[in-house]
Amino acid sequence: MSKFHHTVSRREFMKIIGLAGAGVGGAALVAPTFHDLDEVIASESGGWKRPWWIKSVDEPTVEVDWSHIKRYDHRIMAHSSYPNAQHWGADKWRANREESSKASAARVGTKGNTLRDTALGTAGGYFQSYRPLIPYLTKKPIEGWMGVTPTNPEKLGMAKWQGTPEENTRMVRAAAICFGAGNIGTAELAGHERNLVYTHTRIGPKGNSTGTQWIDNWPPPAGYWRKIDFENVDVGYNAQIDGVDDCRLVLPDRPLWDISVMIPMARASWSTTGTGNDSTKLSSESNTGRYRMFHQSVYPCLQMFINILGWHSYGYGAGDGPGGMMPSEASAVVGGVSEMGRSSEICINPEHGPVTGYYSVITDLPLQPAKPIDAGIFRFCHTCRRCAEFCPSQAISHEAEPSWDIPKFDYLVPNMINAPGKRLFWTNTTQCQGFSGINGCSQVCRGICTMNTETGAMVHGLIKQTVSTTSLFNGFFWEMGKTFGYELMDADTWWEIAPGLPTWGTGITDWSSSLR
């Protein structure tokens, strides 16, 4: 990458893509157009000052047919053994899981999995083994999907918080960022958006429904999932199913809003992920970091913040780290945080790229709904096949155009994991899960993505601005990414540059220049 930074000037780059001296030609395509001052300062973002080239649009850039969007059972998602065993056959899937365990043991001590790599990866996930205590408030762990309410406006001698949706959104955004979020999006769960809420979560108070023990015993009994219902009540609650507590989560059938929380992850360490049998503990720690930040800081603090104001919030049941109430990628897209990518498992954020984690918190605090965004990312994915080329399992589509039709792939039964209603480049999720279990792929598609380049170098900003407004140069940029070395990083190299990276490794910088 250093070759690109040090041999191509801004003027030369503009000449290359045909914008220098373009007048009303190519330059007009990437320049913002404002008709008056009111248009400049008008904002639907509720306090999110994004670059001019990220546009708000009425519909997501990935086409959605809401008539086909039904509530999804999260127990049959990609990480669940049951649907994958139906796709491949139970014997083949069990053999794959056994091979996965052996392969994981064989990686111990290899590059990216040395003692120091393992120490970092293991320490980064330590938070999952305990729950934080707040003895001066509750004497109990912070758990449960409605959070902790140590006090309320009445106890404080104040009235319940009342603000406009715009004021509330700015306030929640400020609080979320203070607690550690990269930013938030917002959407009203009204009408067809209600169908984004899961029917069941994949994790319950007794354990989860994703293991191989349920292949021949589907569905798992109460306690290994939670059922989500809407009822005509003012405040949500949880209840028993078959005598097991905390198995039924009830949302009020009242106006509700979704807060999409975006957590940036460390790009450099994520880029150490391998393309074969050499996944690394460094990329694993980058992935774990988003859960650490969200569940130990953003989520409990944001819930408590909303609750103290006199409102309610609903999120993740006890022990449910990755699930929540609705697909976090859908939350990010409808909430205006990110766009879908070629890999149908990944959202791409204009500011931070694909190395971002997403979470969803539902609230009855009125918020200003954001619109979806168009930064040219999904259009760029139509041309760019970099993730598909590097995917070691070849699970990502190479097609030129997305499709409404969900492929059956080589499955023995119709695709159980992917849900209809979106026009996507569909990923073979069972192939992805089967391969990564053995080889520890760790989503190399994120690390190698052209959008994973840091934005500290000015030229990357120019590219993003161009991509957002015209697809004319997308093919050139795709090839340029190969030419100028947008590659994965050696694990040992990461340890050399890590002391110079920003806090949490997520700031706007240009770590690639450190590799020269």
UniProtKB/TrEMBL annotation:
Record keywords: 4Fe-4S, Cell membrane, Iron, Iron-sulfur, Membrane, Metal-binding, Signal
Location of the protein in the cell: Cell membrane
Gene Ontology MF term list: 4 iron, 4 sulfur cluster binding; metal ion binding
Top-level taxon of origin: Bacteria
Main localisation: membrane
SUPFAM superfamilies given in the database record: 4Fe-4S ferredoxins
Segments traversing the membrane: none
One Pfam family linked to the record: Dehalogenase
The UniProt record lists the keyword Nucleotidyltransferase: no
UniProt cofactor(s): corrinoid
GO cellular component terms, A-Z: plasma membrane
Protein name: Reductive dehalogenase
